[in-house]
Design brief:
The protein is mainly α and about 130 residues long. It has 9 helices and no strands. About 40% of the residues are buried.
């Protein structure tokens, strides 16, 4: 999936007023998700994203995944995107849905398995049920 298509889908799903807010939301979610994932997994995700979005993942990659839940996720996304936590969660849900379509299914299985249940609940229904492996 190309950069513009991803941003357009996030904009539509999150009901954002323009491409700028959709871009900020997508980058904020990707950067925060990268902090939560093991670096190898985040690297695989970045490799499947368009270069302009992969940067958000690569800049936040740490050797070890940080252990945090939904509240911290929402706070970090909100701070990065310049919005409130409820909006951040709505935007995260939209980005996760688009990622589910944009990335290889096996990779999304691994992403889902690396997330705690409270964050996994933001994933599309089929993925949200997948627990850690």
């Amino acid at each position: 999936m190309q950069h513009d298509e991803i941003i357009g889908k996030v904009q539509a799903l999150a009901q954002l007023p323009g491409r700028g807010p959709a871009e900020r939301a997508t980058e904020a979610v990707l950067a925060t998700l990268a902090e939560r994932l093991p670096s190898g997994l985040a690297g695989h995700m970045a490799a499947q994203l368009p270069p302009g979005l992969a940067v958000s993942v690569r800049q936040s990659t740490e050797p070890h995944a940080e252990q945090f839940g939904l509240t911290t996720l929402a706070g970090r996304i909100a701070a990065r995107a310049g919005t409130d936590e409820d909006t951040a969660l709505r935007e995260a849900t939209a980005v996760f849905e688009v990622l589910d379509a944009a990335l290889a299914p096996e990779l999304m299985d691994h992403v889902a398995g690396a997330l705690p249940a409270d964050i996994r609940a933001l994933l599309p229904v089929g993925r949200a049920d997948e627990g850690p492996r």
